[in-house]
Amino acid sequence: NERTLAIVKPDGISGNYTSSIRKVILESGFSIQREVTVQLNEDSVRSFYAEHSTKSFFPNLVKYMTSGPVLIMVLQKVSAIADWRALIGPTDARKAKITHPDSIRAMCGQDLERNCVHGSDSRESASREISFFFTDTFSE
Ligand code: ATP
């Protein structure tokens, strides 16, 4: 079994997509091991997305991710990281609507920035991101 970090971003929460997203998660065989709804501050977003700090879209990303509460979840299943990335679809929600119409981003995202969900992209980032938000330990 593998764990990954999922986030329902502010547009996902304000658009009332939380229960539809939760349904897809459970129907796809994930178990939700932890969940918390929080309002992120600018410093925590800067640190979470540190790899993007030099990108031109970074200030907008910080504004977007602090614009309202987010739902942070630890998901578990076999191949959780790749399977959750496949389920959410491409980063650009506008493209997702065309190429991956059944994806979560096609369902609730709007464009390249406001794409309603996050998923860890590797084992290293999953482990970093889970510890970023959840300081307790997991038992297998
Ligand atoms: P995430 O890390 O949130 O799962 P991702 O791995 O698909 O998304 P990244 O390239 O890591 O995409 O970008 C992180 C986030 O920054 C994106 O999800 C999106 O909200 C925003 N973003 C990425 N590229 C752009 C861009 N060119 N313009 C505006 N926002 C962007």
Essential attributes:
Alpha-Beta Plaits, globular, binds adenosine-5'-triphosphate
Describe the protein in words.
This protein has a 4-stranded antiparallel β-sheet, sandwiched between helices. It is globular, with a radius of gyration of 14 Å. It has 140 residues and is an alpha+beta fold. 44% of the residues lie in helices and 19% in strands. Bound molecules: adenosine-5'-triphosphate (ATP).
CATH superfamily: Nucleoside diphosphate kinase-like domain
- List cofactors, ions and other ligands: adenosine-5'-triphosphate
Envelope shape: globular
Strand order of the largest sheet: 2-3-1-4
Radius of gyration: 14 Å
Can you summarize this structure?
With 140 residues, the protein is of the alpha+beta class. The protein has helices spanning 10-14, 18-27, 42-48, 58-65, 80-88, 93-99, 104-108, 123-133; strands at 2-8, 31-38, 70-77, 117-119.
